[in-house]
Each structure stands twice: as C-alpha cells, then as structure tokens.
C-alpha cells in the first residue's frame, strides 16, 4: 500500500481493495479490512504479519563514511603538528625519523577510529536496551511487547506517558489528549475521539487518529494499528526521531580544551626555541628542529583523551551491567556527585508485590490469609454474604489487571495492586473473569494521580447500571454519604470509625484503598457522577520494603547522601515504610497539601530536615527539586554536614508523564525501566532497568568510581609529559645533549604510558569510597592538590632522567647507551608511579596495592615485552637508536622507579601525619 503523502494512512491489506483514508473508515470497517478481531491477533498471526510487513521501526540514519571518520581523527592539532614534522624531517633527510613519526600518526588515527567505533557500539547497545515497548491485546489478553514487533491489525492500548508506537485508528478514548508537536509543530495537546470523519483533514485535525511518535499527555485510549514503520506518517519524514548521544561530557570537553591549550603552548614555545636556538646557538638547524619536534611530542598528552573516553565507556558498561542505563553522558559524572536522592516508594523502595492482608467491611475487620499472588487463602473469620458480594464486585470490576494461572504459578498482567485485588476475589471464592462477563463495562474514569481514584460503570444482563469506585480513602470518603450495612443495606457514614481504621491500617505500613458503589441511570460516566456514594469498605495491602533497599539506604547514609521518599501514598503508610527502610527522621512527614501552603523560602527551610513526603503529585516533585538545589545541602539536621556551595546535587526518580519536568530539572533524572512511561524515560538521564533503589545506589557508586578513575588517569598522564618536556627544555637551554630523543619520547608516550594508563579505566572503587561525603558540585578535575602533584612528579621524573643518563654515560661512554638507560628509567618510574596513583598517598606499599587488578598484571607483562623489544630487538635498536642495557643498567633504571615510589610514599605519610596533627 502506498498512502498519499500528507493525507492520512490508508487501509488496504490487500492491494485490490480501494485505499480509503483510515480517519474516514469506521472502526468496524477497519477491523474487517485488516482482519483484526476485537480480542486481538493471535501470536502466530502477528508473527506471520511481522514477516510480511517488516519490523515497526524507522530505517537507521546512515553513519558517517569511513573517510569522514578518518578525517575527523586526522584533523586535530597534534596530528597536524606531527604531520608537518614528518614532512620537514623528510626534507631534512632524516628519513627514519620521518617514517617513525608517520607510523605514529597512522596508529594514532587508527586507535582513535577503533575506539570511536567501540564507543558507538556501546551506545547503540544501550539504545537497544531502551527500545520502546507497547501495550497490545494479543491472544485475548493485554501484554507488553517491543514496539518494533507491532503489525497492522494489532489492538493497542494507550496510557499517559506512552509514545504512540504506530499509526493507530482510535476506537475508544477516555479524556485522551496527545502532544503532536513532533508531527504538526503544535505545542498544545490535542483531544481525541473515536468517531469517523467525513473528509480527510490535515494531520493535526484527524481527531480519531493517534500517530506514531506522538505523546499521550492525558487519558487512555485503545485502537487498531493501521500503519507501522516507514509506512507511518513519521516514517515518511523519517530521520526526525534519530536520537543520538555522543560520548561527550563536560569533563571531557574541559580536558579537550585543556589538552588543546597545552598543545598550543607547546607548539608556540617550540617555535620560540627554534628561532632563539637558530639565532643564538651554533646547533645545526636539522638537529635543532628534531629537538623541537621532541619537545612538542613530549609536551602534548597524546594518550590522555583516549584514556579518559575509555574510562567513561567502561563506566557506562559497568553501570548497564548493574541495571542503570545512561542515556545522557554527562550524567555519568554528575551521578557520582549526588548528595540527595529523592525516590518513589512503590516498586523502587518496596517490592511492588502487593497482597491484601486486611479488610474492613461494614463494621467488621478481617485478616486475609494467603501467600503472595497464590489464589488459595481466605479470611480469618467469614463475612456476611451481603457484605462480601459487593466487596468482590468492586474489587473485580473496577480493575484492569488480569491473572493467568500457569502450572500452579500465577502470572499477573497489569498493575500489581489491582492484581492483588483479583487474588482477593479468588480467596473470597469468587471468579473475577466470570463477574466481569456478567457485568460488562460500559464506561470508565481511568486512575489519575491527580484525583487518586478510578471508577467504572457496569451493567448486568437485566440492564441494571452500577457504578464502582476504588481509590485513596480520603478521595473516596469525601464522596460517600452512606456505608454498606449487613442487615439494613445502607446506613449513614461513620466518619470517625473509618478515620481510625485508615490510621490503624496505614500505621502498620499498609497501602489503604477504599471501595464504594452507587446505582447509576445513565450509560456514561462523568467525574460529577462520583458523589453520594455508598462506602463498601477498606482494604489494606502489604508491599514490603525490598531488603536490598534497606542496605542501600544505609550505604547512602554512610556516603553522606540523604534519601528522601516522595510518594503518592498515605502519610502514615509512608512513614511506617520509611522507618523500616531506616530513613533518617522518618516520623516527620510533609503531605502535598502542607507543601502547597509553604512558600519557596519556607520550603527551602524544611526540605533539608524532612525526608518523607506523602500524598504528593508530580508538581510537588518539581518544587522539591528546586528547593533542594537552592537550599543548603538538603540533609537532615543531625549535624551531618554544613552548607554546601551551590545547593544539593539531586537525583530524582519518576515514572509518569507528569514527572518529566522534575526529571529534567533534577541534576540526574532517573526513570523506571519497568513501570516508567516512555515520556519519563525520554526526560531522564538514566534509566533503571529493574526499578530498584539498590541499582540506583550501585550507579552512584559506579559514578564515583568513574570520577576517581578519570582523576587517576590525569594524575598519571600529565607528569609524564611534564617530566619529559622539562627535561628537554633544561637540556636545550643548558646546552646539554638531549637525554631522550624525539622518537624515544614518542615510544614512551604512545606505548608504555598508554598501556599503563589503560589499566586505570578498570580500577575498582577504592575501599572506603562510599564512606566519603559526595564531592562538591563544582569541584575542578585539575584541582590544586592534583596540579601540585603533577609538578612535583614532573620534577622527580626530570631528576630521574638526568641521573640515569649521566650514570649511563659514566658507565659506558656511549650516548646511545645513556639514553637507553634514561628511557628505561622513565618507563620504570611510570610503572612505580602508577601504583602510587592507584591508592591514596601513603597506601601504595601494601599487599592490596601490589596485588592490584588482573588487568594491571597483563599490562605489566605487555610493558615488559614491549620494553624488551625496544632494548634488544635489532630493528628497534636501529629505529630508536637504543642499545642493549646490561644488568647494572636495568638495576639503575629500576632503582629510579623504586626511588619515586618511596619518595612519594614518604611525602604522603608525612602529609597524612601533618593533616592529623593540625586537624586539616
Ligand atoms: P509512588 O510510586 O510515587 O511511591 P504511589 O504508587 O503510592 O506512589 P500513586 O500511584 O500516585 O502513588 O497512588 C496514590 C494513591 O492512589 C495510592 O495510595 C492509592 O490509594 C491510590 N491508587 C493508586 N493506584 C490506583 C488505582 N489503580 N486505582 C485506584 N486507586 C489507586
């Protein structure tokens, strides 16, 4: 089928049928044409159609060509400097130098290319993990499948926060509004209705169609898929939805700028030295030029950008392994600095495996026996039939979940709380499916967190209409006038009794739901019909805290991170669960209503102290994020901390479409992979695949590790360049022979430094890392202590290089031998220095320090192999002008390394004692 552009998807499974715009067809007509039964396609039929129609995905945007990618690698300052060195050295007749530098250029470009490819692979794997899903009816019941598997004829259900997965002809809408800006540019949400249109309007006016890529802002809907993949409207203007996120972060950008600045400085000073040297010294130009090339090569940290992006890529991978998928790269840095985590309760801190454990009906309280979702169980004491039947009807009919018993285990589809109500019906010896068949649904008001209830209108075969309501007890009770009574049928509502009962259930940590009903004459349902209800009773649902969340909360507290619970649940329930989780100050609860009464300043004053927020709506989350970010540190008043500059760094979880503003405003917005809507995922920087708070804390830990490793990478690489370039400058200005040649410096920078630095990306978290407070929001990566360390180690390297060279000269009288000793000394100093970088000052000389990670021993083996080639392979000796070192030379080189280690340890130890004595 080939729909005409700009009109409407047409419906014709078979090309012989005249193609009619879907918006003009009735739903029955569309179902007939697409052979789409109302209870959904069978899985087998869907699989056949998928084969015929192809996947419901947009064609991938073509990546950059190999040449373009190669050019991107070559067109950086370092490579251009090296390329000019290749040309000039060749012109000066230093063919060997020219060839080696050329080899370096090529290998640098290839390494960059491979590494970029790897990073892209990692990111596309992540995109795959976040592939959107869709709710469909297949094989007679609703299920979630990958959106790519949708076919024409599928029946799709839409909920707030969903991205519409294909072009859909709507057949049922309940206050359904879609944001169609992606297609029409119209930013206001558009209301939808199912009636067929008489003419084909512009896309924005096709009120009975939901187009692929648009967003459900409000309400629910159901419809039939009429076009998928590139046949959908968005498919025609494809390319729009290609979301890409590069492996770039503020820190990397900062380091890029820093590296470029250093390169410019080095090149400028090289040129100055060349001019001065030519004018002042009597060195031949060719030698001087080669020396300046050496200086340039020595000063530029060639391997640093690669090491930093590898560290980030390793971090992204380990976070994904711990169920946290990073959608926006900067988050990987920010998450390590988080000082407050605001978390949802249900499903994140608790298991979201609900079970009705108690109920109050009439004036009777009963406990419910049973295990999880197992269907058997019952009440501790029987309940009168006149009470039990309405209770079962409300629980079964005002409910969208379904149960599937499979070999003794029960699988649930839909909301776990509604599934628990269906289980309750079974335990009361009822059958929810039969009840639903006996009382078909005519209309409904879907659950909305704003009014916290859900209502359905059902009629029986005698034509009686009955309205059923379930929801938060405050929301339902205020609409009730009477209550069910086992003998009288109906009596006046006993407000106090129910308030006490709510308190009793909630303070036990149970989620409380009220059930109510009313006879109704019409066949449609409006919010205004929900008054003068008759209360049937209350049910208390247990949703125990996740045991791993209890441990994770304790870990957060130890790491100076405050945890705040923000829930739509009742204050007492929230407080009881918070206490079980070990949240600080769990008894103090701020409700959404109280929050509304506070102005911004008052909220800022109490947001640090209060850790439990109940009966909140998504708008409250936004205010809380802003208050935390602009107040002190957002921690409780138990003296844990002082004020932190720039407010708290806030991680906020969310799942609904209305959570999107808070997720965007938070420093790290975290969406739930399971129960989260597509809108929430798109607004967030990180997606938790298992919705689990413990995974969030694991991600914070990974974030801290990544930051630590980035710092280690910088602390390791910079002094090597510093030591080399200071050595060459000293030699040039002093009129000393260069202790290490340009090619030898390239060897050290490109081989030994990179091999060793690579291991830092895989370093595990330092012991005690999660006992440290979070770093300040604006901490500089190249902090003053780090800059001091770089200078200090550069000077140590300078001394080592010259000492080794002079020893070599005295020992053999050969410059080639002396510079070989100097290179070996430099490599040994790097190796020993690496161990001091891995651990805090003063702790490198420990069994743990020397044991290291497996990857470090692989790197050391590779380093020894490469250095042996440098020392003893004739080809390398000719290329790098090296000479086989003897045993004393190797011992001197190793001695330089050991000396660096000892000096740095001693300094660390003295500094540690000084700080202890001066309370610094
Ligand atoms: P969170 O996940 O943020 O911790 P929550 O899941 O408890 O919070 P909401 O989903 O906003 O918060 O629910 C708020 C209240 O609305 C619940 O405590 C419950 O009383 C009621 N409620 C929740 N889901 C439904 C539903 N499907 N039908 C009727 N009432 C519901």
From TrEMBL:
Transmembrane segments: 70-92, 98-114, 261-280, 286-314, 714-734, 746-766, 786-805, 817-835, 855-875, 887-904
Cross-referenced Pfam families: Cation_ATPase, Cation_ATPase_C, Cation_ATPase_N, E1-E2_ATPase
GO process terms (BP): intracellular potassium ion homeostasis; intracellular sodium ion homeostasis; potassium ion import across plasma membrane; proton transmembrane transport; sodium ion export across plasma membrane
Keywords: ATP-binding, Magnesium, Membrane, Nucleotide-binding, Phosphoprotein, Translocase, Transmembrane, Transmembrane helix
Cleavable signal peptide: none
Localization annotation: Endomembrane system
Residue intervals of the Cation-transporting P-type ATPase N-terminal domain: 21-94
Keyword ATP-binding: yes
Predominant place of localization: membrane
Membrane topology, from the record: Multi-pass membrane protein
GO molecular function annotation: ATP binding; ATP hydrolysis activity; P-type sodium:potassium-exchanging transporter activity
Listed GO CC annotations: endomembrane system; plasma membrane
NCBIfam families registered for this protein in UniProt: ATPase_P-type (TIGR01494)
Family indicated by similarity: Belongs to the cation transport ATPase (P-type) (TC 3.A.3) family. Type IIA subfamily.
Protein name: HAD-IC family P-type ATPase
Organism whose genome encodes this protein: Thalassolituus pacificus
